[in-house]
Amino acid sequence: MPAATYHEYLAEATAAETGRLLPAATAAETGQFNVFNIADLLATRGSRPPMSFGRRPFYKISLMRGRSRVEVADRTVEVAGPALWLVTSRVPYRWHPHDAEQVGCFCVFTDEFLVPVKGSLVPDELPVFQPAACPVLPLGEDDYAAVAVIFEKMTREMTSGYAYKHELLRAYLLELIFLAQKLLPPTAATLAPPAAARLAARFTELLERQFPLATPGQALGLRTARDFADALAVHVNHLNRVLKDATGRTTTALIAVRLGQEARQLLRHTTWTVAEVADGLGFTDTAHFCHFFKRQTGCAPGEYRGGGVAVSI
User: Fold this and answer.
1) Which tens digit of pLDDT belongs to each residue from 194-229?
2) 3-183 maps to which CATH number?
3) How many helices (H) and strands (E) does the chain have?
4) pTM tops 0.90, yes or no
5) Can you give the residue ranges of every domain in the chain?
6) Where are the transmembrane segments (predicted)?
7) Are both 3-183 and 194-305 of the same fold?
8) Were 118 and a residue from 3, 114, 184, 249 both cysteine, which residue would form a disulfide, CB within 3.0 to 4.6 Å?
9) Cα(99)–Cα(81) distance, integer angstroms
10) What is the assigned CATH class of domain 194-305?
């Protein structure tokens, strides 16, 4: 990704000026990675509009303390205490601070930043970056302090003249990622065998690549378990077995969950009619879609539109 494009997305995502976030000299040194203080950015945002709901072409890890609301895909989380929030480029999101009393830091980076050191590690294969994972992890005081120390080291290193500063920043970033992974519930942190994990990750990538739907009438290229198996060059039963072992769900169930998630996003964040949403998601008729949606959510599309349930942590 061109650095200019990255910086533009970064400015919009943090409600601050691009030049302030990544001065030219710093950008040339550090590439597509940076770390910021939340309070400093809020103090300078002025009358800029709130963060828009959408995807950004980078990963973001935030250490937060304060009252705020996090919206990730179709989920809304009310944050009332210390928390760690991780998000990838695969899901749309936005952050709403409820007041000016916000403390913490966040870092942003692209997948390419980890290329020199990640080896066989693919961030999107880690449970902590899966779309179904809890986007916000509540922290105790000890864990908050441990994460804060990593951010402090990152912040200091950003302005150092150390010849291997980029390697050290990558090491700090990996430390942060694996600490977050350690904080996941034990069942969520279990990794599948490497080959199976790669196949599951490729399936997820193919599934996520089709979203979000941008305009009514946009067709999904892959809609069924067989579609995905053919695209991945594996037998449909093998794909189903791998996904069942890795996620606890069948291929069809995972597709249905993602279709339901996209339906909720379209109903909440667009003006599409229910019929347009149904057509965009590949349903043959609106009645079939309404039945599917009610089975997924417990309510009809019309009832859901404009609503949303927040989960406090």
Assistant:
1) 677 778 888 988 898 898 888 888 889 999 999 999
2) 2.60.120
3) 14, 9
4) no
5) 3-183, 194-305
6) none
7) no
8) 114
9) 13
10) mainly alpha
